[in-house]
Amino acid sequence: MTGVQTITVAGKDDGLRLDRWFKTYYPALNHGALEKLLRTGQVRVNGARAKANRRVEAGETIRVPPIKDAAPAPEKAAAPRKDDADFIRKITLFEDASVLALNKPFGLAVQGGTKTQRHIDGMLAALEKDGERPRLVHRLDADTGGLLILAKTRRAAAALSKAFQGRGVEKTYWAICAGRPPHPEGTIDLAIAKKMIWTDDGQSERMTAADDEEAKKAITDYMTLDSAGPVTFLALKPVTGRTHQLRVHCAAMGAPIAGDRKYGGPKARIEGAGDGLLLFCRTMTFPHPETGRATTLTAPLTGRMKDAFTLFDFDANAKVVWPQLPWKKKK
């Protein structure tokens, strides 16, 4: 147990929710205990009381009372590297005064973790200008490639975060799947939850279909765009945003995403397509944080997804027009 500490928020944690900041640096502190510390004023930000969902900013100070089994205080961020800035510029698809859009490569993490040293969030410090740096407003899994939207200002981050959290953003993913869905297009309405599952490799924690109190509603629209034998090219639109939702839903309808050994097992392997997950964030339509106008951005295929499209002769410029599926109908 340590004494009272005053910790300065690092640049890499800018925009992070206060409860997630504590989860990162004080993993032994459960949410209930944190809420109590916040209610009683033992945790403060810049000397003032704060709520768990408050987003902290780089340079702010957090008062941390004595906590058992605390993780080490965050280390001072490394100096920005020019090659990080060059890399981000190389994968930039769109940029204006408020928005930065990247075509994230497969295998590159968006945020850091215990074993992750190189990630998008860490590189963004190299783009800091006049005290502002691009901020994450949503996530893509490391194994997924494609469109990643960033906010360039605090004001833009607040507006975009609200849009992503409130289903104000329409996303379309492309996936190459092993097998065919039961119908060419439709909606998967299947709740999921994180569970401990027994597999051939032993017990592991993963998302799975569930109908108990821990389950969260999960809805995905899908559309078949092409096929080559047992291989299917699907467009997927997540209506909700649960962890690994698209992967769980595709596996549940008998067409796991190619390369998804975690949820598809051996069936997810396609001869000649390699071992990586073939899931790509293709387009997003979102309200621009300054004008409010609907803005649509599209990421061209890269890496293993581009190679797979060539292998199966799928159209890399296929058009997707989503029908009025049942979940949209007013009651």
Set down the secondary structure blueprint:
Layout lengths: L4 E4 L9 H8 L5 H9 L4 E2 L2 E2 L11 E4 L17 H9 L1 E4 L3 E6 L15 H4 L11 E2 L8 E7 L2 H12 L4 E9 L6 E5 L2 E8 L2 E8 L9 E10 L2 E8 L6 H8 L8 H4 L14 E9 L6 E5 L4 H10 L19
Parallel strand pairs: 8-15
Antiparallel strand pairs: 1-4, 2-3, 2-4, 5-6, 6-8, 7-8, 9-14, 9-15, 10-13, 11-12, 13-14, 15-16
How would you sum up this structure, described in words?
The chain is α+β, with helices and mostly antiparallel strands and 331 residues long. The chain is 19% helix and 28% strand. Strands 5, 6, 7, 8, 9, 10, 13, 14, 15 and 16 form a ten-stranded mixed beta sheet that branches. A four-stranded antiparallel beta sheet has the order 1-4-2-3, with no helix packed on it. Strands 11-12 form a two-stranded antiparallel sheet. Strand 13 and strand 14 form a beta hairpin. The longest helix is centred in the middle third of the chain and has 12 residues. It is globular and about 65 Å long. The protein starts with a strand and ends in a 19-residue tail after the last helix.
